Amino acid sequence: MLQLRSGASLGRDPGCAGRQLDSGLMLDLTPDEWTAIELSLRIAVVATAVAAPFGIAIAWLLARKDFWGKALLDGFVHLPLVLPPVVTGYLLLISFGRKGPIGAFLADTFGIVFSFRWTGAALACGVMGFPLLVRAVRLSIEAIDRRLEDAAATLGANRAWVFATVTLPLALPGVIAGMVLCFAKALGEFGATITFVSNIPGETQTLSAAIYTYTNVPGGDAAAGRLVLVAIALALAALIVSEWFARRAGMRLHGE
Amino acid sequence: MLAIDIDKRLGQFRLTAKFEAAAGVTALFGPSGAGKSTVVNLIAGLLVPDHGRIAFDGTALFDSAARINVPPHRRRIGYVFQEGRLFPHLTVRRNLDYGRWMSGISRDDAETRHIVELLDIGGLLDRRPGKLSGGERQRVAIGRALLMRPRLLLLDEPLASLDAGRKQEILPYLLRLRDDSKVPMLYVSHQAAELARVATAVVRIDGGRVTALGGLELLAAGAGASA
Which residue of chain A is at minimal alpha-carbon distance from B79? Predict the structure, then answer.
């Protein structure tokens, strides 16, 4: 009951509710549950941070350039959104697994291993969140007045500087929204992750996988319930933080 | 001196322009849709001519025969747009500094102060464009284009988006600018009265062609012909 109340008050006062949440849940969460939460956050942060630059680049290409195979690229980016997650996970397994062509190459050349590691979970989560990221960023780039970019060019800015000083700052609300969507998707991703890197406690067992496991264990309901509350709190916190950032960015654009 | 001799097709519209613009304010005068804005966009490099040559002081900015096309960011041509096009996410001060920053021109506080005083925008420096009036916005846009030390200043209907009162507010600044700076200007407008106050030479454009070159007397003739 205490936890429910602290979750509900989050909307009014995030700082204070955060402390309540900590002290309220610290007592109840087991080390295994903390591990799953910490792992989920790490995976979602890494997945979002790595996906963001690629997502922004592809969104810019789709919004601003016409090239051969554009429809194909657009479709490919959107595949994880429409494919069953299990299929995406399986495709990752056969391409990025230790014996897969890309996985073997990365392991031999850079020593990066994905299969049955948290890095693989981050990859799966990044791939699943990617279309959401690209869509949000693309829409916000398309909404920018291109005449402002022309004005920047007449003031001496080359293409890279135009992008860095005009396009990207003006697209910032969309970039933030896209990153939050990607982060939320990564936090909740289940199907592709469990197919690709399985459900190993401490390595690939995310919040979602842990909840799934607890619901299949006799007497696991209490643990599952606690983790569900954590999942709700994290999702709400991500929304509130992004709303705050987006409003600040929007205010700057409208001259305040 | 600017020398232009180009052809450009845009859909059904054909533009053929050949003229020269020396020091002072050269008016590009003609009715709406005559191709005036296309000409300044070609000079700025935002549009690419199909054929021809654009040169400034003997150096080619565009030359189809020699395959030269200097990109807009290397032309050092200031451009004041009809709608200002200030960067909404930057303060007035940073809008003014933008051209120097991008062109790698070192700061010159005396020059900045001079232009800020000339345009009377000292009180606006910490505001963002969203909070400026139309007239203030155009004055900042003129300052932004001037502070990058352009070789040539293009003004495309800089007063067209303003009501009559605001126009009277900006015109004195444009006159001060003309008499104060050595930068040659190309001033696009379809308003003869406005041009009569600022221009020193006139290029008349009609239906995508240059129909007359000369002095201010063309403005009167033009007003008569188009009325």
Answer: A154
Question: Structure tokens of B156?
Answer: 């495309």
Q: Is residue A160 part of a domain?
A: yes
From residue A95, how far is each of A74, A110, A205, A217, B8 by CA, in Å? 21, 16, 21, 33, 51
- The mean per-residue pLDDT over the stretch B37-52 comes to 93
Closest CB from A151, A157, A254 relative to B85: A151
pLDDT band at A10 (very low <50, low <70, confident <90, very high): very low
- Report for A4-8, A164-168, B100-104: range of highest mean pLDDT: A164-168
Tell me, yes or no, whether A58 lies in a domain.
yes
Nearest CA in chain B to A150: B46
**Quick check: is A21 in a domain?**
no
The rounded distance, in Å, linking the Cα atoms of A48 and A44 is: 6
Give percent above pLDDT 90 in chain A.
Answer: 62
Please give the helix or strand (H or E) that residue B205 lies within, else none.
strand B201-206
Please indicate, yes or no, if residue A138 is contained in any of the structural domains: yes
Does the distance separating the beta carbons of A148 and B87 come in below 8 Å? yes
Considering its fold, how many domains does chain A have in total? 1
The CATH number given to whatever domain includes residue A165 is: 1.10.3720.10
What pTM does this model have? Answer: 0.83
What is the interface pTM, i.e. ipTM, of the complex?
A: 0.90
Cα radius of gyration (chain B): 17
Q: What is the pLDDT of residue B221?
A: 58
Q: What is the mean pLDDT of residues B68-84?
A: 93
Report the phi/psi class of residue A222: left, alpha or beta, with left for phi > 0 and alpha for psi in -120 to 50: alpha
Nearest CA in chain A to B43: A154
A151 — contact with chain B (CB < 8 Å)? Answer: yes
Span A79-114, pLDDT tens digits? 999 999 999 999 999 999 888 899 999 988 888 889
Residues from B in contact with A at Cβ < 8 Å: 44-46, 71-79, 81, 83, 85, 87-89, 98-99, 102-104, 127-132, 144-145, 148
Which chain B residues are within 8 Å of A163, Cβ to Cβ? none
Domains of chain B (ranges, CATH numbers): 2-226 (3.40.50.300)
Q: Which residue pairs from B136-141 have beta carbons closer than 8 angstroms and sit at least 24 positions apart in sequence?
A: B137/B84, B137/B86, B138/B80, B138/B84, B138/B162, B138/B170, B139/B170, B139/B173, B140/B84, B140/B86, B140/B92, B140/B95, B140/B96, B141/B80, B141/B81, B141/B84, B141/B85, B141/B86
